Amino acid sequence: MTEALARGEKLPVDWKNQIVYYLGPTPAKPGDPIGSCGPTTSGRMDAYTPTMLDQGIKGMVGKGSRTPEVVEAMKRNGATYFAAVGGAAALIAKSVKKYTVLAYPELGPEAVAALEVVDFPAIVVIDCEGNNFYEIGQKPFRNFDINQI
């Protein structure tokens, strides 16, 4: 999509006020909208994220830390980063009520799809002001000395 934007092309999806979930779902069982759908490592998308945030994305769901460039783009665009629990893909799938492919169906599980979710288990890890739980939460333990116990 960033390559399409660089060529001046219109994107197949309007990203304004949308939330992106970085995942690669497994095939759905009969009667289910989606198979297991746990988060994938968001850092793999960091090279593209500032450009996509500039398209109006307001949130992202994944796992793992983000680069300073992504955090700055989040602040500039008022976006939030949520973490879903890795290893809980089957549980997370229970929150998905509908799965609709929107673009790039030839990519299979990596197609762009819309999810309707209820009670999706995620927490805010980087807010729109750049407050980063991955840094703040770990700070008290960075100089921890086990010998002090």
Short key terms for the protein model shown above:
alpha/beta; two-stranded antiparallel sheet; globular
Could you describe the 3D structure shown?
The protein is an alpha/beta fold. Helices cover 19% and strands 21% of the residues. It has 5 helices and 6 strands. It has helices at residues 2-6, 49-53, 68-77, 89-93, 133-136; strands at residues 19-21, 59-62, 80-84, 96-103, 112-117, 122-126. Helix 2 (49-53) links the parallel strand 1 (19-21) and strand 2. The N and C termini lie far apart (52 Å). The relative contact order is 0.17. The mean pLDDT is 94.
Short summary:
The protein is an alpha/beta fold and 149 residues long. It has helices at 2-6, 49-53, 68-77, 89-93, 133-136, and strands at 19-21, 59-62, 80-84, 96-103, 112-117, 122-126.
Topology, number of strands: 6
Query: What is the distance, rounded to the nearest whole angstrom, between the alpha carbons of the first and last residues?
Result: 52 Å
The chain-level mean pLDDT equals 94
The arrangement of helices and strands along the chain is HEHEHEHEEEH
Range of helix content:
10-25%
Strand order of the largest sheet: 1-2-3-6
- Strand residue content: 15-25%
**How many separate helices?**
5
Q: Please compute the radius of gyration using only Cα atoms.
A: 17 Å
Largest sheet: number of strands, sense, barrel closure? 4 strands, mixed
Which structural category do the helix and sheet elements fall into? alpha/beta
Shape: globular
Would you identify the regions where 5 or more consecutive residues have pLDDT less than 50?
Answer: none
